[in-house]
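Bench notes, afternoon.
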Amino acid sequence: MRIADKKSIVLLLCLVSIVLMPGCTNWKKKYILLDAENKNFKGLLERSTSEKGQLADRVAQDQATIDELQRQIEKLNKKPEDVTGFGPGYDVAFDPKAGTITVTLPNAILFDSGKADLKKATIAELDHIRSVLSQTYAGRQVDVVGHTDTDPIVKSKWKDNWELSAQRSLTVTRYLIERGMSEKEVRAIGCGESRPVAANKAKNRRVEIVVHMR
């Protein structure tokens, strides 16, 4: 090989070395950057997997809450007499603030005018109420509250409306106790004409069975 050719080869190798040296530096930088990105992706993947598990737990909790709310909505959509267990045909009201359930019985189905003796036709009504109280509300305090209208006592033996309402309340209370309710759980209360609920006098003549839920 000629000396000129050898010089040319040496020169060419030098040029290649010069060209490749910056290239090596760039590839090293790229490797470092790619390695850092890879680690970042791994961290994101691990965090994403953890968050996915937490999200699944949150979804399950939210679904349980939704199901409970749905049950409450379905319950609220029912009539009070269905929810409380007294069944259809009864005037039932629930007062969440007072924590009471009240079954209202008009005096017309319980007593004759000016009387405090139960009508025979009423027995089935009271037996049903007593059964619900004993089975569903055992241990709860129950008030039997008598009410009258504003008409003064004229022909009957009662001194006034207070006495008539109290006696009617006692009649219903004694009936419930005779059929098995505890004397400690039932109270008789007479309110006379002091707590009207309507302008209609007939609606004011009533006996209320009040169950205390608290």
